[in-house]
Amino acid sequence: MKTELIGEQIARYRKAAGLTQEELGKAVGVSTQAVSRWECGGAPDVTLLPAIADRLHVTVDALFGRESGPAKNMSNDLIQWMRSIPEKDRLTGLTRLLWEAAIYGISDSLFDAPWIAYPEKAELDKPSLFGEGKALMRTMTGTDAGYLLGVGAEDYSYFGVFPEPEEGYEKYFLTDDEYRTLFGAMVLPGAMEALRFFCRNKQGLYSAAAVAQRTGAPLPETERALEALTQARFLQKEQITLPEGSLDTYAIGDYSGVVPLLTFARWMLQPYGMNLVGNVVRQTCFGKGDARDETA
What's the angle, vertex CA 171, arms to CA 166 and CA 176, rounded to 5? Predict the structure, then answer.
């Protein structure tokens, strides 16, 4: 077996994993120069091969060019890989895998695409749609099987995966009026300020007057906003009894969906063309649901 082959395989899988030579070197405890020597015809110490293979998400056999063999249980492999890295880094590592899948694995049209480096920064030096803040560099893939979209970068990354169900997407949507309840609550004056306040202060009950004082919004606007946010299930309302009477108070509801909702709202407000990778080949938006008879 020629040692050059191992170096070629390391270079191939490193690029497919979106790693720099420096990143691979740090992961296995060697210098950038050592990785460069491997890829230029050298070979690593045999004791390093398992660590190299684990970081590149391949088998040791694959580093020797022996890529055929019995089918592997990729679910178990992924779980084992997740457990091999610190818990605080697991979500970041998983989103990076999804980014790589979006570019190289989901669609055959991108499978042989040239290697694209994993960006360091999610934000671009270009303004957002409203001229405040910066635009995000997005990644999206849309095929007849569904959607994978998000942002992939060292400093910030997230992804949503939406395989199309057999019945189409619309079967699982809310009614138009239910969406109006949700989004109508958010557009009321003082609503976003109140929602941000409750997300930052997840513990405790607050009266409308207390929320208005802390957000700087007028009390009547705050009262209307809190009622609408409660109807939309962002908040929970609880009446407490005081010596002088009862008082309506509010607390955050199921806040786990707020971050994804606001994050994908920013996605929707991005200017067109702000994509590192954009590979949408779907012919329709909702898929099977597009074909329904609206006049029925």
Answer: 155
Q: What is the DSSP string of 207-258?
A: EHHHHHHHHT--HHHHHHHHHHHHHTTSEEEEEEEETTEEEEEEEE--GGGH
Look up the domain containing 134 and give its range.
Answer: 100-168+261-291
* Average pLDDT for the chain: 83
Does residue 296 fall inside a structural domain? no
In angstroms, rounded to a whole number, what is the distance separating the alpha carbons of residues 295 and 290? 13
Report in angstroms the alpha-carbon separations of 280 from 102, 122, 142, 169. 11, 21, 4, 17
- Contact between 286 and 170 under an 8 Å Cβ cutoff? The reply is yes
The candidate with the shortest Cα–Cα distance to 172, out of 185, 181, 163, is 163
Say how far apart CA 240 and CA 278 lie, in whole Å: 52
Residue 92 has pLDDT above 90, yes or no: no
pLDDT score, position 55: 85
Give first-to-last CA distance, the chain, whole Å: 68
pLDDT of 1 higher than 50: no
Q: What is the mean pLDDT of residues 59-74?
A: 69
pLDDT, average across residues 88-115 = 71
Whether 199 is in a domain gets the answer yes
- The CA distance from 133 to 235, in Å, is 28
